[in-house]
């Protein structure tokens, strides 16, 4: 039996809730083909070896391998390690970047607590396509590594005007706008007051256009924020903005949705 100090060294895998809607001791759990290959071929695990499995509805459980083959396997649940825990809703609206940079945004955003990614097309966006399955896989892998219990959702690509038209009026969208002092000189540089359901907007490489910035500043739910005097890469701006918002959000008690 693995002690509590050894649990962190066990492999950790996400389980699709449809494969295990209810978790209880001794319950069987099928393993997806790619996970079976990973456990058996990459990690060289065998029958009886332990691992951790999770999804948002069941929390995290200790399980053991009941059967493992080339592309299939099954687990047996042993006991719950962590109960389900609501994650503060945090949305990230970001202009699509080149493939590697977009991958990085998904990975770092997942690690920093984003619950919903909203990829955007802006005036200066260079690419208009994504592979949803691939991005979901990246977010899943990041969630497995950073030990969060849920997998963030990824919405279909939309335009910035479409996002603004659908944004809930009671939620604040913090927009990282370059050269904010020139565009909104009366904006106070105070730490943002973040609540569950708010979001962050990051533009593309080259920044948002003047027209887009003016449109944003006219919306009542937009709160412009500055990320400092230096011009950041878009993926760096994501990290800086999420760190700023996440600090305030984590300090606020979260209730079940």
How would you characterize the overall build of this protein?
By secondary structure, the chain is an alpha/beta fold. Helices cover 29% and strands 23% of the residues. The strands form two sheets. Strands 6, 7, 8, 9, 10, 11 and 12 form a seven-stranded parallel β-sheet that branches. Strand 3 and strand 4 (59-68) form a beta hairpin. Helix 2 (99-111) packs parallel to helix 3 (132-146) and helix 2 runs parallel beside helix 7. The chain is elongated and about 60 Å long. The two termini are 35 Å apart.
Number of helices: 7
* Secondary-structure class: alpha/beta
Biggest sheet record? 7 strands, parallel
| Helix content range | 25-40%
Radius of gyration: 21 Å
Attribute tags:
257 residues, alpha/beta, 7-stranded parallel sheet, 7 helices, 12 strands, disordered C terminus
At a glance:
By secondary structure, this protein is an alpha/beta fold. The protein is 29% helix and 23% strand.
